[in-house]
């Protein structure tokens, strides 16, 4: 390694001696001739570095914006879900209240019966009506639950579509 260093040192000394022998005009021309390509190389390198930095900043901004959209979609989905659950709870409570009122009315009717046949008729009517109400109300709750699921996932589905579209586009150069 010392040999390489000495050889390079000898080359540098040789160039310095040649430049000194050639005179100041020759040295100035050598410096000017080597400065122009160095400046061009430096400017090109700086331009490429600037473009690369701008590209990274743009990518970071896009990623931030995309993440913000995801967070907004999650918040919207959670809001829709919570509102929907409250509505379903109200519907369930109303359904149970209706069943209770129907049962109380049937109990009152049974308390006034005068025969076993009349009691059987009231009980049969109560059971049939209760079953019909249960099927109707359960169907309504089922439909409301499906609508809630669709509404809850709508913002998330939209974000998924945006993600697919974004990922399928070629990267901007």
Automatic annotation (TrEMBL):
<dbReference type="InterPro" id="IPR018968">
    <property type="entry name" value="Phasin"/>
</dbReference>
<protein>
    <submittedName>
        <fullName>Phasin family protein</fullName>
    </submittedName>
</protein>
<dbReference type="InterPro" id="IPR010127">
    <property type="entry name" value="Phasin_subfam-1"/>
</dbReference>
<dbReference type="Pfam" id="PF09361">
    <property type="entry name" value="Phasin_2"/>
</dbReference>
<feature type="domain" description="Phasin">
    <location>
        <begin position="61"/>
        <end position="160"/>
    </location>
</feature>
């Amino acid at each position: 390694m010392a040999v390489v260093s000495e050889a390079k040192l000898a080359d540098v000394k040789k160039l310095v001696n040649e430049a000194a022998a050639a005179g100041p005009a020759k040295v100035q021309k050598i410096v000017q001739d080597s400065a122009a390509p160095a400046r061009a190389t430096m400017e090109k390198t700086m331009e490429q570095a600037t473009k690369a930095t701008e590209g990274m900043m743009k990518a970071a901004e896009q990623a931030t914006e995309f993440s913000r959209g995801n967070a907004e979609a999650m918040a919207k989905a959670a809001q829709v879900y919570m509102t929907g659950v409250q509505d379903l709870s109200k519907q369930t409570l109303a359904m149970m209240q209706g069943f209770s009122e129907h049962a109380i009315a049937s109990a009152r009717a049974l308390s006034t019966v005068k025969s076993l046949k009349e009691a059987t008729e009231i009980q049969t009517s109560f059971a049939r009506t209760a079953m019909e109400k249960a099927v109707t109300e359960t169907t309504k709750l089922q439909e409301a639950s499906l609508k809630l699921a669709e509404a809850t996932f709508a913002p998330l589905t939209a974000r998924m579509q945006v993600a697919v579209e974004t990922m399928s586009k070629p990267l901007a150069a």
